[in-house]
Amino acid sequence: MNFDTLFRRFILTQSFVRGWGNPSHLQEIFKFRREKIGVRNECLKLVPAESVQENTIEIIKQETKGDLQYLNGRFRSPLADYLPNLVSPEIATAHFQLVLPRNHRIGIDSIPIGICYAGTGDQGYGRRRLLTAVPLINQYRIGTILLENPYYGFRKPTLQSRSSLFYVTDLYIMGKALILETILLLHWCQKMKLSPAILHGYSLGGHMASLAFTNWPGPLSLLSCASWSSSSTVFCDGVLSRTIPWALFKKQFYENKAYQTFYDYLCSQKKSTNSDTIISDPIKHMMRLLMDEFTSLQNYSRPVESNINNALFVACANDGYVLRDGIPHMNDVWPGCHIRYIPRGHISGFLFNQSGFQHAIAEMLQRQEPNVKLKKNPIVSPISVTTSSNS
Hints:
By secondary structure, the protein is of the alpha/beta class. The chain has 16 helices and 9 strands. It has helices at about 1-10, 25-35, 40-45, 80, 90, 125-140, 170-190, 205-215, 230-235, 245-255, 255-270, 280-295, 305-310, 330-335, 345-350, 355-370, and strands spanning about 60-65, 70-75, 95-100, 110-115, 145, 195-200, 220-225, 310-315, 340. A hairpin with a 2-residue loop joins strand 1 and strand 2. The longest helix has 24 residues, at about 170-190. The protein starts with a helix and ends in a 23-residue tail after the last helix.
């Protein structure tokens, strides 16, 4: 955990450099999450299977290097059709890179596929391609879709510096966009014989994978690494809390009555479960309430029962970014999901456990479909649901 703190000191990127975001936007996203995104049946209506055809995805580049082929694709993010005033032109177009074996005939041959989400600050495809996509093909013959996060890479707003999101609302728009884009991609994968499928990622990527996992009605696997049930402790207590301009948040809160009104509403929603809580810092408390509202897995549909056994969380026992105290345990949120702990911090877990993550991806795919054709068979090992003193 000390290494996580030290490492962060060398990163210049700040979080939410312009504050909360427009109060009306917060209210609009809040309503959309509660009525649509957070309810599986309603969310699926936003991207019906019949609306996704082969030509829904535009392949803009295709090249072969060595034993691999790379296809760059793009499509219109469904969120742009439902919240057009919140989705800028850069965000409205989703970009991805599909990595497959050289001899694979897309749409003809079947191959297991993973959708890999970017972690915090992971712009472009290079890092995930090198550390995840290429090893997965070489070792297990699993293809990968490297989906670009909104506000990153091709989807980064013109004035945004690095990965410094302007507003808290940007994070929530990112999550909602990725959930709908995942549904579209999974429909497309079915048509292109890219199956069985798994969603996976590290840190922010792992949490986005978990959110997207909640809404798919068919067979699906999940590997969520270095993430947990909510992001509230990440931004309020962990290392990233030191990157937030709290003075700016306080100034905006007290200068705009709309923030205070929304905060009072959030508090009223929580009273029944937290009636004895003493609030010493309303600014940080509002951040905690917002993060729980939009990122807590408890506020989304529980995955279909048959998929929960295909979900694995790999937690870092000494994580300084993703603190698990004070938020629900995943055993309580998704009873029956699998949990493993590795004796690492957040950064060291990423640096030194890549081969373990790759193996876990193949393992969870085989758990979903025992007869899936992988280079290494069988690879499923017993998974015990464990507890940790830091859980």
